[in-house]
Design a protein that fits this description.
There is one protein chain. By secondary structure, this protein is α/β, with parallel strands linked by helices. It has 16 helices and ten strands. The strands form three sheets. A six-stranded parallel beta sheet has the order 1-10-7-6-4-5, sandwiched between helices. It has a two-stranded antiparallel ribbon with strand order 2-3.
C-alpha cells in the first residue's frame, strides 16, 4: 500500500518547515475551546453559555452522534443526558475498537451517515477519538476512499456537515487537542497518521471523574505517552515559545502528579492535573511536533502489540541520548525540573536518571527486553522496525535525523538497555 508519508517530496520538504529561517517568517498556534473541571459537562460556563449550549450554537439541527467503546460507553448516558437537556437528539455508537482499525473506522462512518449528525462527540481514549476523527472525514467527504494517501496540507473541507467535540476518558494521547488521527492498517501491521488542520476538535471537555477508574497500568501508560509528547516537543525544531510554555508546564505536572494518580486512583486533584497535563502536551506537540520517541514507538507498539504509551515512553532515554549529540535544549527541561549539576553533561545525566526513576516507580521496565520481547522475535522484526520508523512522519521532525541503520542501532541499544554513545 502507498502512504502519503512515504512520498519522496513529502519526506524531503516537510523537514524544511522546521528551519529557523522559514519559521521566522510566520507562526500559527491552534487549540480547541476547552472546558475543564468536575462539573464541566453541566455547570462550567464559557462566554455566557453552558458547554453544550455553546456547542449548540454551531449545530442548528442539534443532532449529536456519540462515538465510544465498551469501556467508556458507561459514561455515554451521562453525556447524552447533558446534551438532551440542551435539546440535542443523540445516538450512541459504542463499537469503536482499540488502535482504530480502518475497517472499524469505515463501519463508524456508515452509521454516522445514516444518522446525519451536525455534532460528532468522541467519548473515550485516544483510539476512540482518533477513530471518530477518521470517520468524520469519510462522513463529510465520501469521495475520499483511501485515508492512507490523504496529503497533510490539503484542506478536507470539514464542518460542512458537523463539528467535533472530544471528551477524553484517558490522560495521555492529547488527541482531544491535536489535528492528528492515528489509525491502523491491520493487514500491514502499521499505524497510519492522518495530519490535517481540519481535524482539530472544536471543543474539548476535561472531566476528572471520567478517568478516576483507570487502573494503574493504564494510568502509567497514558501518562508516559503525555510525557513523551511534551519532552519530544521541547526538542523538536518545530517548536516555539507557545509550545515550549505548554510542554514544559505539562512536564512539571506529569512528574508531580502521575505517581499520585498511579498509586491513588481516586485522587481527584491528581486526576484533573494529569488530564490537564495530557491536553497541554497535546496542544504543544500538535503545534510543535514530536520526533523519534513516536516514530520508533509507533513501529514498536504495532509490531509487538505493546501499549502505545509504554512503547513511546520507554524510548525517551534512548532518543534523548541520541538527540544530545546535536542540541542542548534538554537544559530547558532540566530548568523546569530543577535538575542541577556542574556541567551540562551532569544535568543531562540527572534528567535521564529522573525519567528512569519515574519508570521504576510506575513498574515500567527500562529496556525492550524487559517488555518480554524474545530475542528471536526482535531479530525477526528489526528490519520492519527500522524501516517503519524512518518512514513515520514524526521522524521528519527530529532534532537529529536518523537513517534505517541508526534506528536499528537505537533499537538494539534499547533492547539491551545500553546508554546510547553514538
Amino acid at each position: 500500500m502507498t502512504y502519503w508519508f512515504t512520498d519522496a517530496v513529502v519526506k524531503d520538504r516537510l523537514p524544511l518547515s522546521g528551519a529557523s529561517a522559514i519559521r521566522g517568517m510566520s507562526l500559527s498556534f491552534s487549540m480547541p475551546r476547552l472546558f475543564m473541571g468536575p462539573n464541566a459537562l453541566s455547570e462550567v460556563r464559557g462566554g455566557g453559555a453552558n458547554v453544550f449550549e455553546a456547542v449548540g450554537l454551531k449545530c442548528p439541527q442539534r443532532r449529536a452522534f456519540v462515538v465510544t467503546d465498551g469501556h467508556a460507553g458507561r459514561y455515554a448516558n451521562r453525556v447524552c443526558a447533558a446534551m438532551q437537556r440542551r435539546r440535542f437528539t443523540t445516538e450512541v455508537w459504542d463499537r469503536a475498537e482499540p488502535e482504530a482499525p480502518l475497517e472499524n473506522v469505515r463501519e463508524c462512518a456508515e452509521a454516522m451517515s445514516k444518522f446525519e449528525p451536525d455534532a460528532i462527540v468522541a467519548l473515550g481514549g485516544g483510539s476512540v477519538i482518533d477513530g471518530a476523527k477518521a470517520a468524520w472525514i469519510l462522513y463529510e467527504r465520501p469521495d475520499i476512499t483511501d485515508l492512507a494517501t490523504v496529503p497533510p496540507l490539503r484542506p478536507f473541507g470539514l464542518r460542512e456537515k458537523a463539528i467535533f467535540v472530544a471528551i477524553p476518558t484517558t490522560s495521555g494521547t492529547g488527541s482531544d487537542c491535536t489535528a492528528v488521527a492515528v489509525v491502523s492498517d491491520t493487514k500491514a501491521k502499521r499505524k497510519i497518521p492522518i495530519v490535517n488542520g481540519d481535524l482539530l476538535p472544536d471543543f474539548a471537555i476535561l472531566v476528572p471523574d471520567l478517568v478516576s477508574g483507570m487502573p494503574p497500568h493504564l494510568t502509567a501508560g497514558t501518562g508516559l505517552d503525555a510525557l513523551a509528547h511534551s519532552m519530544d516537543c521541547v526538542m523538536s525544531p518545530m517548536t516555539n515559545d507557545f509550545t515550549d510554555a505548554m510542554a514544559l508546564r505539562a512536564i512539571q505536572l506529569i512528574f508531580k502528579y502521575l505517581p499520585r494518580a498511579y498509586h491513588h486512583g481516586a485522587d481527584r486533584e491528581a486526576r484533573l492535573r494529569m488530564h490537564i497535563a495530557a491536553s497541554m502536551a497535546g496542544v504543544a506537540f500538535g503545534n510543535g511536533g514530536v520526533a523519534l520517541t513516536h516514530s520508533m514507538g509507533h513501529s514498536l507498539g504495532k509490531l509487538f502489540a505493546i501499549h502505545h504509551g509504554i512503547a513511546v515512553g520507554i524510548l525517551i532515554p534512548y532518543a534523548f541520548q541520541y538527540y544530545s549529540a546535536v542540541t542542548d535544549k534538554y537544559l530547558d527541561i532540566c530548568d523546569a525540573l530543577n535538575i542541577s549539576g556542574n556541567t551540562n553533561e551532569e544535568r543531562f545525566a540527572g534528567l535521564i536518571e529522573k525519567v528512569r526513576a519515574l519508570f521504576t516507580e510506575l513498574g515500567v521496565p527500562l529496556s525492550l527486553k524487559g517488555l518480554g520481547i524474545s530475542e528471536k522475535d526482535f531479530e525477526d522484526n528489526i528490519d520492519k522496525l527500522s524501516l517503519y520508523s524512518v518512514e513515520d512522519p514524526s521522524a521528519f521532525q527530529s532534532p537529529r535525523s536518523a537513517t534505517e541503520e541508526q534506528c536499528e542501532k537505537l533499537f538494539r541499544y534499547a533492547y539491551e538497555g545500553r546508554d546510547v554513545d553514538f
